[in-house]
């Protein structure tokens, strides 16, 4: 199979090159371009790069899961009893929320990675290649999906160990993870845009968390908003993070309504529709 | 200077081959700054062509325009026969660019970087790995293939960066300051590589702020300053255009150098250049007679000379003569940093 690809054409070899260059002569035999790859093939190549990043930087996975693990343990054992009356009861309420929080915070790392790549001139090479222009971003998304799945699985496993029980069983968990990936995909665009606009990765992180903390904490992730003052409850009720958390709770418990799912999907869909073209425009403009 | 003289500096061209680059009136503005201000460029196929100029002259922006990384605000260009604005994807298929800053993934190994790019070019599976391995071998990087790029030396990084532009032999290779930051040995290695590529038929457009680099490598040089092309030709032509000869004088007394410069400028016109070493001046002299008169003027003023000579200008003197003229026009000189 490999023989059919014209890797090295022996016909033209420069013979007049003096000694010191001899070692680089094989390069100089003209290598023609193979048939252009598909957009999907381009995206897969970038996805492979994202997988390699996990292999070479296992510590980024550590960052990724440590915070949610600590949140889970802290809230369940320290605050759980006081907040919900019992540790088990609180875990049942809190675990879907921490999954949403994990996925939303994960998106920040994606933006940081993009900002790092852009600062190093790596994307200049990608942009000078005859590839599908959105392929590098599709690759980032593949990395994000992997991150969400790994972090989500670890959190869920810890929850199950601590006594969390998804009433809807395996189908509920699968549907819940599908929703999490859609949420991650939608929120991911925000940080891709930030990554394109901001040159320093730490600024992306600061801005990202500064933007996300109010959304995550002024939501129904940690506590039932019933005890909050009226003005805050008004915000919490329309906060997209609350809507996503409500839908995920419903999916895992088997009580979800179509309206809840539609509301949870509204923000990710809107973000994608607005920010994907903006991403392409920003990327080409640079 | 549009006609190439058949000299050692300008190899004979095949008149049938279309130009590798043909640009007309390219303009790129960043806010109020005109980084590229109406540049015309003709680069024949198979030539090493240098864009020479100080930092901030617009060389890199011009290269980025030609490599489709940024869109021109005005003007047009074809690259390997493809229109820059109308068919950028076709241009990308015919070029490769090695930027000023290593365009590699530091976290990946050298081999993984090349395999990734090979896949993006359309090599599949085993073929992508084979292509990466043959490049690694050719660039003397086989031993380091499995190491992360962040552990590479500057020279190794540069070699890998250039290898990353050769997965498919490009029609044009853009090299932005290919030897900046390299030690002399690594620099020589990159020069040998560039020459070998040109011998294999690759058109090379490189930017440099090193005059010797342009002088040694390039068949043709365009001098860029303030976003404009202020001169173009072979190294020999540029030197000849600056003046048939250059008068160099060295003074015994450094304190009188300004007075000496005024006298020389008075006798010969033009602008005297102070050499970096101190009490030496050089200036364009049209003939031996003019030079003789100028030296006479110095001696008549009682300025003692330790040395004087008449010779062809160095490319460095050409460069300063060109940018110095602009200074006299009242613009801020670029100054080779």
Describe this entry's structure for a reader:
The complex is a heterodimer of chains A (286) and B (337). In chain A, 74% of the residues lie in helices and 0% in strands. With 286 residues, chain A is mainly alpha-helical. Chain A has one domain (40-285). In chain A, helix 2 (39-56) packs across helix 3 (58-84), helix 6 (135-162) crosses helix 7 and helix 7 (169-197) packs parallel to helix 11. The radius of gyration of chain A is 24 Å and the shape is elongated. In chain B, 50% of the residues are buried. In chain B, helix 9 (257-268) packs antiparallel against helix 10. Chain B has 11 helices and 14 strands. By secondary structure, chain B is α/β, with parallel strands linked by helices. Chain B has 2 domains: 21-239, P-loop containing nucleotide triphosphate hydrolases (Rossmann fold); 244-312, 2-Layer Sandwich (Alpha-Beta Plaits). In chain B, a hairpin with a 2-residue loop joins strand 1 (21-30) and strand 2 (33-43). The longest helix of chain B has 16 residues, at 184-199. In chain B, the strands form 3 sheets. A 6-stranded mixed sheet of chain B has the order 6-7-8-3-9-10, with helices on both faces. Chain B has helices at residues 59-66, 88-94, 110-121, 125-138, 154-163, 184-199, 211-217, 235-242, 257-268, 288-300, 315-328; strands at residues 21-30, 33-43, 48-52, 74-79, 82-83, 95-98, 172-176, 203-208, 220-225, 228-233, 245-251, 273-274, 280-285, 305-311. Chains A and B meet through helix 1, helix 2 and helix 5 of A and helix 2, strand 6, helix 3, helix 4 and helix 6 of B.
């Amino acid at each position: 199979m490999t023989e059919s690809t014209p890797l090295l054409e022996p016909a033209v070899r420069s013979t007049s090159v003096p000694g010191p260059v001899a070692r680089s002569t094989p390069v100089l035999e003209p290598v023609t371009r193979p048939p252009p790859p598909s957009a999907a093939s381009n995206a897969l190549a970038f996805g492979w790069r994202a997988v390699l990043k996990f292999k070479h930087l296992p510590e980024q996975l550590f960052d990724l899961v440590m915070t949610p693990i600590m949140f889970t343990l802290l809230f369940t054992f320290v605050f759980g009893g006081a907040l919900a009356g019992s540790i088990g009861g609180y875990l049942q309420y809190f675990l879907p929320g921490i999954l949403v929080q994990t996925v939303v915070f994960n998106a920040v790392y994606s933006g940081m990675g993009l900002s790092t790549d852009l600062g190093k001139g790596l994307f200049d090479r990608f942009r000078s290649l005859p590839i599908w222009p959105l392929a590098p971003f599709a690759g980032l998304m593949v990395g994000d999906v992997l991150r969400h799945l790994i972090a989500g699985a670890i959190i869920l496993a810890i929850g199950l160990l601590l006594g969390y029980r998804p009433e809807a069983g395996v189908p509920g968990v699968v549907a819940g993870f599908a929703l999490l990936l859609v949420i991650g995909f939608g929120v991911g665009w925000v940080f891709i845009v930030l990554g394109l606009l901001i040159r320093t990765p730490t600024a992306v992180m600061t801005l990202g968390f500064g933007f996300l903390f109010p959304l995550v904490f002024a939501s129904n992730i940690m506590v039932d908003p019933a005890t909050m003052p009226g003005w805050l409850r008004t915000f919490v009720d329309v906060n997209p993070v609350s809507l996503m958390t409500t839908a995920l709770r419903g999916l895992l418990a088997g009580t979800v309504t179509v309206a809840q799912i539609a509301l949870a999907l509204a923000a990710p869909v809107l973000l994608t529709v607005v920010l994907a073209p903006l991403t392409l425009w920003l990327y080409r403009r640079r | 200077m549009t006609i190439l003289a058949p000299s050692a500096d300008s190899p004979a061209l095949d008149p049938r081959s279309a130009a590798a680059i043909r640009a007309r009136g390219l303009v790129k503005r960043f806010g109020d700054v005109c980084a590229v201000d109406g540049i015309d460029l003709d680069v024949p196929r198979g030539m090493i062509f240098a864009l020479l100029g100080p930092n901030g002259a617009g060389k890199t922006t011009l290269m980025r325009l030609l490599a489709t990384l940024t869109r021109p605000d005005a003007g047009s260009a074809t690259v390997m026969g493809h229109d820059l604005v109308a068919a950028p994807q076709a241009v990308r298929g015919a070029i490769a660019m090695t930027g000023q800053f290593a365009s590699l993934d530091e976290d990946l190994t050298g081999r993984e970087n090349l395999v990734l790019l090979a896949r993006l070019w359309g090599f599949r599976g085993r073929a992508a790995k084979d292509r990466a391995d043959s490049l690694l071998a050719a660039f003397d990087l086989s031993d380091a293939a499995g190491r992360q790029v962040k552990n590479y030396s500057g020279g190794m990084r540069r070699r890998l960066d250039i290898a990353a532009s050769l997965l498919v032999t490009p029609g044009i290779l853009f090299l932005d300051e290919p030897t900046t930051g390299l030690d002399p040995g690594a620099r020589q290695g990159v020069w040998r590589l560039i020459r070998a590529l040109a011998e294999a038929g690759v058109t090379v457009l490189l930017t440099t702020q090193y005059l010797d680099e342009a002088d040694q490598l390039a068949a043709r040089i365009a001098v860029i300053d303030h976003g404009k092309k202020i001169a173009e030709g072979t190294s020999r032509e540029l030197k000849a255009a600056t003046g048939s000869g250059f008068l160099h004088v060295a003074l015994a007394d450094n304190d009188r150098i300004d007075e000496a410069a005024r006298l020389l400028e008075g006798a010969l016109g033009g602008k005297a250049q102070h050499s970096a070493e101190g009490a030496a001046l050089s200036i364009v002299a049209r003939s031996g007679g003019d030079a003789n008169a100028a030296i006479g003027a110095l001696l008549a003023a009682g300025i003692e000379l330790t040395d004087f000579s008449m010779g062809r200008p160095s490319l460095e003197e050409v460069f300063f003569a060109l940018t110095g003229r602009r200074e006299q026009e009242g613009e801020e000189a670029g100054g080779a940093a």
